[in-house]
Amino acid sequence: MWKKIPTPCYVVDEKKIIDNLTCLGKLEQETGCHVLLAQKAFSMYSLYPLIGSYISGTTASGLYEARLGKEEMGKENHVFAPAYKEKDMQELVKICDHIIFNSFSQYEKHRKTIEAYNMEAAQDVQWKINGLNAGNAEIVQDAAEPARRVEIGIRVNPEFSTQEGHAIYDPCAPGSRLGVTRDNFPGKLPEDISGLHFHTLCEQDSDDLEATFRAFEKKFAPYLNLEQISWINLGGGHHITRPGYDLERLVKVISYIKETYGLKVYLEPGEAIALNAGYLVTEVQDIVHNQMDILILDASAACHMPDVLEMPYRPPLQGGFPAGEKPYTYRLSSMTCLAGDVIGDYSFEQEIRVGNRLIFEDMAIYSMVKNNTFNGIGLPSIALLKQNGEIQMVKEFSYEDFKGRLS
C-alpha cells in the first residue's frame, strides 16, 4: 500500500478518525457538553463534514481559522486570540458565535463592534416579525429564527500549572501573556460578558483538568455564580481519545460544573480528534556516514513536523526502535541545509537501504497546520486511508504553492 504513495505524504486514517469522533460524540450525548474541534491542531477541512456529524463545531485562533470553520463545517464557531485587529473584528462578529478576549483592554477596544452587530441582528429579526404581522411571506420566511447574538467571553489564567517539560506550551508558566489573573479581574464584571474560558493543558488526562478546575473555582467561583454567566470553556489539551484516559473522571467534572453552577460546558480538543490517526510516508534518498550511518529522507523535521524541534518530540516510527536496541542504528535526517534538521536516532531489525519507505505515526496533528517550505522544500501531499483500505489522494502541492507565499 505505502509503495504507491508519492513521498513525502501525510496519510490520515479515516477509521481511526471515526473511532475518535465516536468517543467524543458519546461524551456529548452523555454529559450535554459541547465539543469543538481546535483547528490549530488539525485543519483537514475535507473531513469537516464528517467531524461535524459527531461534535458541535469548531474553535479558532484567528480570523482565517474562523473563516475555515464557518465555511467548511458551518456549526458552532468560536474564536480566541491574544489580540484582535479592528478590521478582523468587523468580520469575526459576522461568523463567530463566541468571541473570547485575552484582556479587559481588548474587550473594551472591541465591545462596541460586537454590541453594534448584536443590535443590528436583533433589529433585523424585528423587521422580519413586523413583515410577518403585515402578511409579507417573502420577507419573513425565517422570521421565527431567533436573533443571532455574539457571546463575549474572557480568558482566565488560574495560575495553576500541571505540566512538566513543556514550558513552551504552558499558559500558566510565570510571566505568561495568556489569560487574566485573579488580581487583574474587576470587582464588577461587565454585564455583556457571558462566559469564562481557561486553557492550561497539553496532552493530559482528566485528573489534571480536575485539579485545574478546583484551583480555578477557588479563585473565580464568585463570577461563576453571577446570573449573567451562562457558559464555561475548559479549553483544550484533553487527550480524551488516548487509550487509558480517565473518561469517567471527565464526565464527573462536567456534571459537577453543570449541577453546581448551571453552566453550559465547552471543550476544545484538537489532538483528540485525530490522535494516532495519521502517518507521514517518506523515502530514503541517501545514506552518509559520519561516526554513524545517517539516512537522508525526503521528509524534514524543520519543514514537515516542526514539533520535533520545538518540543522536542520524538515521533513513533513503524518498525523503528530506540537507538542501540536492534542491530542497525541510524540517524534520521532530511534534505534541507539546516544542520540540526534531525528527526532522531532509531534502530531497526534489518538494514535500511536507499529507496526504502519509512512510516512515521501520529502525524495528523500539528503537522499539516505547521508545515512550511523552508529551503524550497515541497509540502507533503495529503491522502486519506479509507475504511475499505483504499488510498484517496486529497491534495498535492507544487512549486506554485511555494512561490505563492513569496513576492
Jot down its keywords.
17 strands, 30% helix, 21% strand, globular
Q: Separation of termini?
A: 39 Å
- Compressed to H and E, one letter per element, the order equals EHEHEHEHEHEEHEHEHEEHHEEEEEEH
Q: Percent of residues in beta strands?
A: 15-25%
Mean pLDDT: 94
**If helices are DSSP runs of H or I spanning 4 or more residues, what is the number of helices?**
11
What gyration radius follows from the Cα positions, in whole Å?
24 Å
Protein described:
There is one protein chain. The protein has 407 residues and is α/β, with parallel strands linked by helices. The strands form two sheets. Strands 1, 10, 11, 12, 13, 14, 15, 16 and 17 form a nine-stranded mixed β-sheet that branches. It has an eight-stranded parallel beta barrel with strand order 2-3-4-5-6-7-8-9, surrounded by five helices. It is globular. Helices cover 30% and strands 21% of the residues. Helix 3 links the parallel strand 3 and strand 4 (76-80). It starts with 8 loop residues before the first strand and ends with a helix. Helix 3 (63-72) packs parallel to helix 4 and helix 4 (86-95) packs across helix 5 (104-133). The chain has helices spanning 14-31, 48-52, 63-72, 86-95, 104-133, 206-224, 247-261, 271-274, 301-304, 307-310, 399-403; strands at residues 9-13, 34-38, 57-60, 76-80, 98-101, 151-155, 193-197, 231-233, 264-267, 278-289, 293-297, 321-322, 328-333, 342-348, 357-361, 381-385, 391-395.
